[in-house]
Amino acid sequence: xxxHEQGAxxxxxxxxxxxxxxxxxxxxxxGGVDRQAATEPDVAQRRWLEELLRERGLRVVYDRVGNxxxxxERVPGAPYVxxxxxxxxxxxxxxxxxxYGVLAAAHAVFRIAEQDAxxxxxxxxxxxxxxxxxxxxxxFTPSMMGSAVYTGVLPLExxxxxxxxxxxxxxEALAPTGFLGDGDGPEAAxxxxxxxxxxxxxxxxxxxxxxxxxxxxxxxxxxxxxxEQAHSGATVMADRRDALVGASMLVVxxxxxxxxxxxxxxxxxxxxxxxxxxxxxxxxxxxxxLDLRSHDEEVLAEADRLFQExxxxxxxxxxxxxxxxxxxxxxxxxxxxEGVALARASxxxxxxxxxxxxxxxxxxxxNMKERVPTVMLFVPSVEGVSHNEGEYTxxxxxxxxxxxxxxxxxxxxxxELAASGTHTPGRA
Length: 428
Ligand SMILES: [Zn+2]
Prior knowledge:
Number of strands: 15
Number of domains: 2
Bound molecules: zinc ion
Number of helices: 12
Shape: globular
CATH architecture of the largest domain: 3-Layer(aba) Sandwich
CATH topology of the largest domain: Aminopeptidase
């Protein structure tokens, strides 16, 4: 048994204790969390993380969109392995989504710092823990905001001007917190992220570590259904142009589409805003956000075509007009295979089962892998429950994931994977 293995139990216990502490920020009575971006619990948790990172010798900096970095400088002037996830949450969410990945990143870097101090490593790259700002996009759109600005996909000004439903901008929400830095964050050479799977593939195959090989393809539409406001009692039925009836038909049409491609296509309307949303008024306008996702690009294209047929049918049937904007679209998109191979070697070296999986959900690493070689790991989600207060992952899987992440970051930091250039923040 090595010294590292002897030290592991107490280090794991310390990690689990920190995880319990962090889960108290924004805790809900049903065992979940509510930590939307830049709300009081998110701010309090970030201050707690800053303290934790500082205590362990990391230098904490913020970039201009509020991404939080804990820097471990090992090689002056060298670029960084950026490792982390997000700590913001949906309004009623689970404790693990994102938060696990940030804390695991912090503890992975703490462990490597101990190896450095013991002379047990040969550092080539610096290490940065990251807590990306506003990954969930529930308070401010778009989602994955912090990593999108960092990678240059989203202009900084657009992000800072994004407003929540109360009209508060990102800039206004962040200004009083002290989390708006004046720099662009560290230069990245590699990225790593660990996250709960949010699906059942690992659990059903009794696999501990998911090696994420690609993202599902997705198309997201912002749809506005236009009708005409009328008295909901007095107006004769034949005269009505009810926007909510049209929107409801689209919601059902999206669900029926998924039923035609079982297991291959996921669809949902996650948001519906009705105007004027008043008891005695036929709605004149309904706005909805539609997601279509598949791991098969041909199925996705066919689903999109069929959905457009339904839009035409709904316009005629409900006497409404439908306006659509394709807000996001991406194809099946692979992670670098050499990163998958490196992560597999780490899992095998630790005696943990692993297998390749795809991610249906978007993650900050989805942005990062477009710029630098990126490793994405999953640990099992019990029954696949996600974006729900009942989200759960076994402690044994949390610490197994931390062990693999630590080894992956150690290897990346030692230059085991060839860098394909570096990424300067904010530049596409
Ligand atoms: Zn997440």
